[in-house]
Amino acid sequence: MKGTFVNFSRNLFMAAVVFGLAFLPVPAAQALTCSVKPDNIPITLTYHGAQLSITGQSASGDDLIVTITSEPADTALKYKEKVGGLVWMKKGTLEFKDTPHIYMLYSTDELGRILNAEDLNHNLLGYEALRAHTRIEDSGGNPADLKWFDEYIKFKKEEKVYDIQEGRVVRQHGVDGNTYQVDVAWPYQAPPGLYTVEVLAARDGKVVDRSSTSFEVKSVGITKFLSKMAFDQAGLYGIMAVVIALLAGLAVGAVFKKGGGSH
Amino acid sequence: MYMYLPIALTSVNYLVVMGLGLGVGLLSGLFGVGGGFLMTPLLMMIGIPPTIAAATDANQIVAASASGTFSHWRLGNVDFKMGFYLLIGGFLGGAGGVQVIKILRATGGADFMIKMTYVIMLGLVGSFMFVESLHAMRKNKKATATSEQTSTPAKKQGGFFAALPMQVYFEKSGVTHSALVPLVLGTFVGVLAAIMGVGGGFLMVPVMIYLLRMPMHVVVGTSLFQILFTCIEVTYLQAYSNHTVDFMLALLLLVGSVFGAQIGTVLGKKLHGEQLKILLSIIVLAVTVKIVLELVMEPTILLSYAGGH
Question: Residues near B240 by Cβ (< 8 Å), separated by ≥ 6?
Answer without folding.
Answer: A234, A235, A238
